[in-house]
Amino acid sequence: MPTGATDPSDQPDRPDLPRVVAALRALVRLPTVSHRDPGRVDTAVFDAFHTELARRFPLLHAQLEATRVGGHGLLFRWPGADDARPVVLMAHLDVVPVDEQAPWQHPPFGADLVDGAVWGRGTLDDKGPLVVVCEAVESLLENGFTPAQDVWLSFGSDEEVLGASAVAAVEELRRRGVRPWFVVDEGGAVASEALPGVAVPVAVVGVTEKGVTSLLLRAEGRGGHASTPARNGPTARLARAIARLDRTTMPARTPEPTLELFRRVAPHLPGPLRAVAANARRLGPLLTRALVAAGPETAAMTRTTLAVTTLSGSPALNVIASTATAGVNARLMVGDTVEDVVAAVRRAVADDSVAVEVLERGEASPVSPVDDPAFALLEATTREVFPDAVPAPYVMMAATDSRHFTAICDRVYRFAPLRMTKAQRAAIHSYDEHVRVDDLLDGVRWYRRLLEGLPA
Known about the structure:
Blueprint: H1 19-28, H2 43-56, H3 58-63, E1 65-69, E2 73-78, E3 82-92, E4 113-114, E5 117-119, H4 127-142, E6 149-156, H5 164-175, E7 182-191, E8 202-209, E9 211-220, E10 224-225, H6 234-246, H7 256-265, H8 271-278, H9 284-293, H10 296-299, E11 305-312, E12 319-320, E13 323-332, H11 338-349, E14 354-360, H12 373-385, E15 390-396, E16 412-420, H13 422-427, E17 434-436, H14 437-452
Parallel strand pairs: 3-6, 3-7, 7-16, 8-15
Antiparallel strand pairs: 1-2, 2-6, 4-5, 5-17, 7-8, 9-13, 9-14, 10-12, 11-13
Helix pairs in contact: 1-2, 1-4, 4-14, 12-14
């Protein structure tokens, strides 16, 4: 096929395609977009997704016990030879909406196969990881394989909004008395260009994730006609508060997972940086300053971030607002609390007439162990399937459904076993999201080896 050409048949059921590729294409073509407003969710599309998933992976649905949780969430139990150390593998079937003005090279729900890659919304987040889990299980079932431990598959249906189906899955497992040995969800990846100066891929495994908290700044006043403005109205006070907040940063420090990350990649760094990274624990303050100086992405690895994301004021150009509001998205670093963030925002705003309200509260997740047999299994599996990559823990910046599982499990890891370039990672929640066919097949191999390697 010439470069840039689309698969000539453009059908998901081409007999020469690997099953996992055909399944992904069929599922990407179903726009399972989640919304905070349940009334906007197209439930028929989610029903169709369930039907298509069952058609693509019949043994999984025939031989595993299935429970529907939280609307369209799915929870499967694969009985193992033992149930003492059950394992949970996670993914989610919903996707974020598409910006129709974004310059997609290929239709976001077309699932085009171009240059050895499947293009479309959800190919990386998170239908690609979902189908590699299912394909690994399906192929092992075809071989008559029984895992050494019970395996649960938890597929959420609203991860991109609230994660209520994951909460329901946790409650169902709690009701059954299941306390997982470890959980694996999306999050990390086999990332190229992961860190400045590191030429090899880094297989980053999220051992914790930042908390997500939503705040609202609110300023109120009399309002009125724009022809007779008064000084220091709600919009002016809110603007001043936003400007003050924009100049504010939370204290910076390098948490333990980040120190371990740099220790592991140290041999692959250029000379001066190698020495600092190799002695990251001893030179922690120096490393912290270097990360802050390197730019906003690496600075976010060291501290809680605050971003003003929404603004609301007058409903018309000739009306002075009686209420002006600004939404603030806070991503909490391990060691900070929601109370710490609220106090810092109030200090920065320094105006009692601007209220600070907590809309959604989310603390940082507990840190899962690295010096542990469960992490060692993930690491060994990764070294086998991706021998050129450096496995390493990290602090995940975004939120996943797995944060809810920390209530019943001490070992929650976030890792999608897919190679991702920097451009691919930038396409998540943006445009031109795509996954290479070869990387899907490696993802299947990773999950197979993980399941085959579960200890008795």
